[in-house]
């Protein structure tokens, strides 16, 4: 997927500090052509500062940024082959839709006919053809977002930066716009770099995700990789929900490892190749949807099997969520698909049940 | 509920009556036919006619308007520059100090402002031979100095409320910083600039104290003229003049308020 020999964006040792505070700390990253790359993190993790350094609004304290082989580290925003869609959309309130979209080309002194043609193309792309003369205060949030998108795309940038592109939209519109963004990206083949705090958004949109915390990348990978194989506790907890058990490595064999788990009073198996030593403290993590819930004892002896009591349950329509109190007192979360249509509950509060999961589902967290 | 709203209404009425009855009575007495300013002698507009035949008054009024227009324009240019600098050019050294200092002319007693400016002009003349005569120029400069503080405050607060990413977006799309100011910033703060200009205009038109300090022989602004005449006793034509003044000033303030309000709604 990523052409490692010839990336479009090459970020090397990029840092930014404000006084004593290090916002971005020694980031290295290559982003390939036509990628839809997301930087995911909580507020204050440095993701916006990183994006602003790519756009040219912040000067890095150290390191450099190359775009298409050209060092742009010290170029001002108006000389970079990069355009940005702002979180607030920043649509100019004193210009109509058409003028907003044409602004970038007018600054480049493109000919009148050329501008008109490309504005038409953009209006068609974002489906705003009927709104070209509209003032911005007569547009909805979704329409403003599309004006901002068209305005940023019209100069055919090598990279489009998107700062929380969907945060200001309501849920339904957000889902629809997500797919529109993906289609547009696919159609134009422009590299998108998205900054978001919304993991669902990052998961659906991206070809790759970087999870960021305290100015550093904790893990960079495809959405599936990040979700199923989180490399540490922060990533595991940040993306989705996960149950974590603390234990020590009891044995290592070619298939996987066994972990003695004090808080459960049992041994857990994890399949996979982990670089751990016997006696090392590790965490074992399991996603709620990987856990099965049953009334009778599960038969597969190889699986992890634990007894518990239903402490709480919630019906979400497509899913049911359970909080199960294990014999050891530990609470864990389980979710299951409601495949069968039924008005009756599968289990009641305080029912004694069994939970189980396959060793393949367990993730070992070293730090 | 009924009782309380009645109480509130009467308080309101009393407060506003206290504020506006003196002004209204000036306007009413400007239509007085009597030769005595304080005794009603029937309706007439003759004092307005008299007013426009009085060359001294017309000269004073013309001078005041010229000063007000010039000072307001200069104050708007300088005040906008100051407001832009304070709101948009990052956290440069001493910004807090300058931010505080820009508001001090607003609270400074006019006597002190007037006196210090007079001292400045006198010593300037002594060392540089300029201004050789105090009048239009010196009053305009004096009015510009305090009016620009008002403009700067209005412009700065407008900029503070404005999304900074608008300017960043323009730069991102290829606008050089200097162009962006003209393309984006100035059009968006135009209402604040207009309001600032009108405020500066009315402030200059109103000012008596500072103008008295920095003016020279032969240059009397309208407030100065009125004040000197009133010292010899109130004549009915002054009432007419005051009424015209009230009209000009309140129109200016009304427009200033309306432009600011309109831009805020948008």
Q: Quickly give the CATH architecture of the largest domain in chain A.
A: 3-Layer(aba) Sandwich
Q: What is the residue-averaged pLDDT of chain B?
A: 89
CA radius of gyration of chain B: 22 Å
Q: Tell me the CATH superfamily of chain B.
A: MetI-like
> How many helices of chain A in DSSP terms?
8
The CATH homology group name of the largest domain in chain A: P-loop containing nucleotide triphosphate hydrolases
Radius of gyration of chain A: 25 Å
Strand content of chain B: under 5%
Q: Given this structure, which CATH class of the largest domain in chain A is correct?
A: Alpha Beta
Number of strand elements of chain A: 20
Low-confidence stretches of chain B: none
Look at the structure and give the mean pLDDT of chain A. 92
Query: Which residue ranges of chain A are poorly predicted, with pLDDT under 50 across at least 5 consecutive positions?
Result: none
Helix and strand element order of chain B: HHHHHHHHHHH
The proportion of strand residues of chain A reads: 35-45%
Largest sheet descriptor of chain B: none
Briefly note the CATH topology name of the largest domain in chain A: Rossmann fold
Give the biggest beta sheet of chain A: 6 strands, mixed
Q: Output the structural class of chain B.
A: mainly alpha
Measure the end-to-end span of chain B: 35 Å
Q: Which pair of chains forms the biggest interface, and how many residues does each contribute?
A: A-B, 25 and 18 residues
Question: Brief description of this entry?
Answer:
The complex is a heterodimer of chains A (367) and B (266). Chain A is of the alpha+beta class.
From the structure above, extract its key features:
heterodimer, A: 367 residues, alpha+beta, Rossmann fold, OB fold (Dihydrolipoamide Acetyltransferase, E2P), 6-stranded mixed beta sheet, 5-stranded antiparallel beta sheet, 8 helices, 35% strand, globular, B: 266 residues, mainly alpha, MetI-like fold, 11 helices
């Amino acid at each position: 997927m990523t052409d490692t020999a010839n990336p479009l964006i090459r970020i090397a040792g990029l840092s930014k500090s404000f006084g004593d505070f290090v916002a971005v700390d020694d980031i290295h990253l290559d982003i390939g052509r036509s990628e839809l790359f997301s930087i995911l993190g909580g507020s204050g993790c440095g993701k916006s500062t990183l994006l602003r350094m790519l756009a040219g609004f912040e000067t890095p304290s150290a390191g450099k940024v190359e775009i298409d082989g050209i060092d742009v580290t010290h170029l001002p925003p108006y000389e970079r082959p990069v355009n940005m869609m702002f979180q607030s959309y920043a649509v100019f309130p004193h210009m109509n839709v058409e003028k907003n979209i044409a602004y970038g080309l007018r600054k480049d002194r493109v000919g009148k006919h050329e501008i008109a043609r490309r504005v038409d193309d953009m209006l068609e792309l974002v489906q705003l053809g009927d709104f070209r003369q509209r003032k911005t205060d007569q547009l909805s949030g979704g329409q403003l977002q599309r004006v901002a998108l068209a305005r940023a795309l019209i100069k055919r940038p090598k990279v489009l930066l998107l700062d929380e592109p969907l945060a200001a939209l309501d849920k339904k519109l957000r889902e629809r716009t997500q797919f529109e963004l993906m289609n547009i990206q696919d159609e134009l083949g422009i590299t998108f770099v998205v900054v978001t705090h919304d993991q669902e958004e990052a998961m659906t949109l991206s070809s790759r995700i970087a999870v960021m915390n305290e100015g550093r990348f904790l893990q960079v990978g495809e959405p599936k990789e990040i979700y199923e194989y989180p490399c540490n506790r922060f990533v595991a907890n940040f993306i989705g929900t996960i149950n974590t058990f603390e234990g020590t490595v009891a044995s290592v064999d070619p298939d996987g490892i066994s972990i003695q788990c004090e808080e459960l009073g049992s041994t857990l198996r994890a399949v996979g190749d982990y670089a751990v030593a016997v006696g090392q403290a590790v965490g074992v993590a399991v996603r709620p949807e990987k856990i099965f819930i049953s009334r009778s004892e599960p038969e597969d002896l190889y699986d992890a099997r634990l007894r518990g009591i239903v402490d709480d349950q919630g019906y979400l329509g497509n899913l049911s969520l359970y909080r199960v109190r294990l014999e050891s007192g530990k609470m864990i979360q389980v979710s299951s698909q409601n495949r069968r249509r039924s008005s009756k509950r599968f289990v009641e509060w305080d029912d004694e049940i069994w939970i189980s999961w396959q060793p393949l589902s367990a993730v070992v967290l070293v730090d | 509920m009924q009782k309380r709203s009645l109480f509130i209404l009467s308080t309101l009425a009393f407060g506003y009556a206290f504020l506006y009855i003196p002004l209204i009575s000036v306007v009413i007495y400007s239509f007085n036919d009597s030769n005595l300013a304080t005794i009603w002698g029937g309706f007439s507009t003759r004092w307005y006619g008299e007013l426009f035949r009085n060359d001294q008054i017309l000269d004073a009024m013309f001078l005041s308007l010229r000063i007000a227009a010039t000072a307001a324009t200069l104050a708007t240019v300088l005040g906008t520059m100051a407001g832009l600098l304070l709101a948009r050019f990052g956290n440069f050294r001493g910004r807090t100090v300058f931010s505080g200092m820009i508001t001090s002319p607003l609270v400074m007693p006019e006597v002190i402002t007037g006196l210090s400016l007079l001292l400045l002009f006198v010593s300037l003349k002594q060392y540089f031979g300029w201004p050789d005569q105090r009048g239009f120029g010196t009053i305009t400069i004096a009015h510009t100095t305090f009016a620009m503080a008002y403009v700067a405050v209005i412009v700065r607060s407008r900029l503070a409320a404005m999304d900074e990413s608008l300017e960043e977006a323009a730069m991102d799309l290829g606008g050089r910083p200097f162009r962006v100011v003209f393309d984006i910033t100035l059009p968006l703060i135009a209402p604040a600039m207009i309001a600032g200009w009108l405020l500066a205009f009315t402030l200059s038109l109103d000012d008596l104290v500072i103008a008295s300090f920095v003016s020279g022989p032969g240059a009397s602004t309208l407030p100065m003229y009125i004040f000197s005449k009133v010292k010899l006793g109130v004549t009915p034509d002054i009432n007419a003049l005051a009424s015209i003044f009230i009209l000009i000033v309140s129109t200016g303030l009304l427009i200033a308020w309306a432009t600011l309000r309109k831009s805020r709604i948008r």
